[in-house]
Design a protein that fits this description.
This protein has about 160 residues and is α/β, with parallel strands linked by helices. Helices cover about 30% and strands about 15% of the residues. Helix 2 (about 35-50) runs parallel beside helix 5 and helix 3 (about 85-95) crosses helix 4 (about 110-120). The longest helix is centred in the last third of the chain and has 13 residues, at about 130-145. Mean pLDDT is about 85; it is low at about 145-160.
Length: about 160
């Protein structure tokens, strides 16, 4: 049993979800810009966790609040001009979201790697999946939650300076 098995026992302070390759073709708030099914599934699962804050990790812009207005782009995570771990850490400091926990990262390996550069103890409920189908199924499970959801507090890890 891992910490990820207990996501139904608390409300995370922060959930970070990935951007997506499918976007509107015009400037829009980040919460509206990404229109792909994977991003939307991550968003619905994140919202079901009832986080204190929800951020999108954009491959181009880094950490975004849902109402941050941005231009569409075509930069995948890992590309030469994509956001770096150092830049994400600096943005997290500027946005005052360097937390001791709990932080949940929804997304694939590249996304999780950037999130863990800032929050090494982030819970990663999609870890161990073997492809998009399993990830989508797990996101649906997170969205549905479990009966009798509790909101007990959890032990916090040390904050990152």
């Amino acid at each position: 049993m891992t910490a990820n098995d207990h996501l139904d026992c608390f409300e995370p302070e922060l959930v970070v979800i990935p951007c997506g390759s499918r976007k509107l073709d015009r400037r829009a708030p980040a919460g509206d810009l990404y229109v792909g099914s994977y991003h939307r599934a991550c968003r619905r699962a994140a919202e079901a966790l009832k986080p204190g804050r929800l951020l999108i990790l954009s491959a181009r812009y880094g950490l975004l609040d849902l109402d941050d207005v941005i231009e569409p782009y075509d930069t995948p995570h890992g590309a030469a001009d994509s956001i770096t771990a150092d830049a994400v850490l600096e943005q997290a400091r500027q946005r005052d979201v360097i937390l001791g926990g709990p932080v949940v990262a929804l997304g694939g390996a590249r996304h999780v790697s950037l999130v863990r550069a800032v929050w090494p103890e982030a819970l990663t409920p999609l870890a161990g999946t073997r492809g998009m189908g399993e990830q989508m199924a797990r996101l649906a499970e997170l969205r549905r939650g479990r009966p009798g959801r509790r909101t007990d507090s959890v032990e916090r890890g040390p904050a990152i300076p």
